[in-house]
Amino acid sequence: MRILLQLTYNGANFQGFQIQNEGRTVQYELERILKRMHRDFVRIHPSSRTDKGVHALCQYVHFDTHLKLTPDKWQHAFNSALPDDIYITAVREIPETFHSRYDCIGKAYRYKIYQAPHRDVMKTGLETWYPYDLDLVKMNEAAQAFLGTHDFTSFCSAKTEIDNKERTIYSFTVTKTRDGYDFHVIGSGFLYNMVRIMVQHLLDIGQGRRQDDTTALLAARDRKKAGKTAPAEGLYLEKIYLTPEELAEDIPPGTKIITKNTPKSLTTAPGML
Amino acid sequence: MRILLQLTYNGANFQGFQIQNEGRTVQYELERILKRMHRDFVRIHPSSRTDKGVHALCQYVHFDTHLKLTPDKWQHAFNSALPDDIYITAVREIPETFHSRYDCIGKAYRYKIYQAPHRDVMKTGLETWYPYDLDLVKMNEAAQAFLGTHDFTSFCSAKTEIDNKERTIYSFTVTKTRDGYDFHVIGSGFLYNMVRIMVQHLLDIGQGRRQDDTTALLAARDRKKAGKTAPAEGLYLEKIYLTPEELAEDIPPGTKIITKNTPKSLTTAPGML
């Protein structure tokens, strides 16, 4: 049977989601527990592979198993064996036609910056320090140019290996928080470093270091013309949308939802949260 | 000349303040920078040696140097070379008769717990998860029994090597926060694990697992009669008092202040914050 885990992790002390030759990874921690339970290697499949230092408020992984455990027992088995910076928030059995990556139709990311005269060591790894004056209106105006379907070649790492760089952004807002700003973006999917490059672009505009050339930059399809990549520490994978219903709830009414792979199995199944 | 640094650090990824054979320590990070600047070893002296995992919102260290740098230059030299989880908040030159440890006349600690149905991975290393109902009134009542001068043998680690276990508590309050409780204690000084044992004692009382036997426990002078030691992650060294004036501001008016070592040099010098 196929099991879907919903989990959250603090990325500060991980080398990212995916197993590496060296250093802690979320995948290693999960597969280590499954191996012990199955006395055999069991591969997990995530909805998204987050980078080094990136956090997840909601991530999904699935795996196939012959063990007959209830969702509660799975959750307890994981949470009692996982380190303090990973936590399984929900577990359910899913049809074997469902795949956590291919059936993901959208994702939401949040990027957090704080402003203070000096670095706050208690926020190290959790938020990015950005002590410059920012224009909230300008940042929100520029963010609107990302909405819709575009080729994001200018806004992804030059190392991106995927060919199709077209993605759809459904919503992009910047809001003032108690001591900084939150950047919140929902899209069909995101290329390598895409959120962090878009955020730095908006920061450069908000700081007045750059005119709003977002539309021209999208058209240029040239990574070198965009700015730097914001640090990983402020980035949170906030939500993963497995059904159009869930996604529709979080984006403006009437927005057309792109579903490359029509969700086969979960269209009528509500999210787990 | 003698230089005093005021610093803050996030203890989550340190093996404590003091240099160890293995693992990151705050002392190592500071002395590493001084060694590079002086081309020679320079010893630093902290006001307090915090344990593994314990944070500092305000810590002091002093060292002697022949280098003639302004306070601003010292601060910049350290902050540009220190890792992200240590930050120098102020620097000043002090008389060579002043010693950051011997001239410390009081300390304030804060202990943070949060309550939630499940562990919050973003608070890992920063606050202690304590998902049980607590009685705020009972905890504050019990905390009052700690006020004044007592032998704290029952409330310090059995491994404590110091002979005189008499300490004075000036203030001890428990307050409700947005999603948990803060324990705030000010005293003349604290023995090994003393704050964490006192906090766990109050948690046990607040949870109804223990009757308020604080006064009897103090009289018993037996560590085995008290409860467990709360985890390090929720503990913050919040303030260090170098002058009676600073301390008097934070404790009830008229409280008698104990000054074993009469502050020789800083009585008229205000705190650096």
From TrEMBL, chains A, B:
Keywords: Isomerase, tRNA processing. CDD domains: PseudoU_synth_EcTruA (cd02570). It is an enzyme of class 5 (isomerase). It holds the Pfam family PseudoU_synth_1. Gene3D superfamilies: Pseudouridine synthase I, catalytic domain, C-terminal subdomain (3.30.70.660), Pseudouridine synthase I, catalytic domain, N-terminal subdomain (3.30.70.580). Residues 9-103, 142-239 form the Pseudouridine synthase I TruA alpha/beta domain. Signal peptide: none annotated. It catalyses: uridine(38/39/40) in tRNA = pseudouridine(38/39/40) in tRNA. Its EC number is 5.4.99.12. Formation of pseudouridine at positions 38, 39 and 40 in the anticodon stem and loop of transfer RNAs. Belongs to the tRNA pseudouridine synthase TruA family. This is tRNA pseudouridine synthase A. It comes from Macrococcus bovicus. The gene is truA.
